[in-house]
Specification:
The complex is a heterodimer of chains A (about 120) and B (about 110). Chain A has about 120 residues and is mainly β. Chain A has strands at about 5, 10-15, 20-25, 30-35, 45-50, 65-70, 75-80, 90-95, 105, 110-115. Chain A is globular and about 45 Å long. Classes of the chains: A mainly beta (about 120), B mainly beta (about 110).
């Protein structure tokens, strides 16, 4: 597609429920990132997929968080047993990683509110 | 592992004054460096990047940044601030083929 697409754009869930967030990267981009941005805060790295390499999960805050990516396409971020501190905007980005073309292109994010 | 430090979570400048947002990085290899901007209620967009070659990089909206290896810095500047520059600015670094790591951001306020 023309840009990184994330769905849903907004999600309100009850504490303790599981949620799935979806990211469609730019076609042909081999790298995909998930970041979390709490209100008024910076970007917190969560997970990084690059081609066929094992994902870098070093940023996942707890075992309630997991992410998958199918080939070089769609990725889903799953949060199990959501807590109020999970409320944030979850940003997905993709990049090419080819020569000097390594910048990340961001989606509009999914705003998650846990009530 | 690479890291980024942005000095000042909030910076205020008067309209027409020089904008200077500071960024220092650490990287084990020659880095790629980026500045992103996030306008209110919008997504992040690339402002400029340094990969190789000329150390002074020009970006959109009159911004530029200079890669100084000896100082491990990549400060962002604009000669004359405009009200529309009010936004959150993020510096980022990558070790070439590795993931991009972002700083905590600096919110720029423009005073009339």
């Amino acid at each position: 597609g023309a840009g990184v697409s994330q769905s849903p754009s907004n999600k309100v869930t009850e504490k303790g429920k599981d949620v799935e967030l979806r990211c469609d990267p730019i076609s042909g981009h081999t790298a995909l990132y998930w970041y979390r941005q709490r209100l008024g805060q910076g970007l917190e790295f969560l997970i990084y997929f690059q081609g066929n390499s094992a994902p870098d999960k070093s940023g996942l805050p707890s075992d309630r968080f997991s992410a998958e990516r199918t080939g070089e396409s769609v990725s889903t971020l799953t949060i199990q047993r959501t807590q109020q501190e999970d409320s944030a905007v979850y940003l997905c980005a993709s990049s090419l990683i080819e020569g000097t073309n390594t910048e990340a292109f961001f989606g509009q994010g999914t705003r998650l509110t846990v009530v | 592992a690479q890291s980024v430090t942005q000095l000042g979570s909030h910076v205020s400048v008067s309209e027409g004054a020089l904008v200077l947002l500071r960024c220092n990085y650490s990287s084990s290899v020659p880095p790629y460096l980026f500045w992103y901007v996030q306008y209110p209620n919008q997504g992040l967009q690339l402002l400029l990047k340094y990969t190789t070659g000329a150390t002074l990089v020009k970006g959109i909206n009159g911004f530029e940044a200079e890669f100084k290896k000896s100082e491990t810095s990549f400060h962002l500047t604009k000669p004359s601030a405009h009200m529309s520059d009010a936004a959150e600015y993020f510096c980022a670094v990558s070790d070439r083929d590795d993931k991009i790591i972002f700083g905590k951001g600096t919110r720029l306020h423009i005073l009339p």
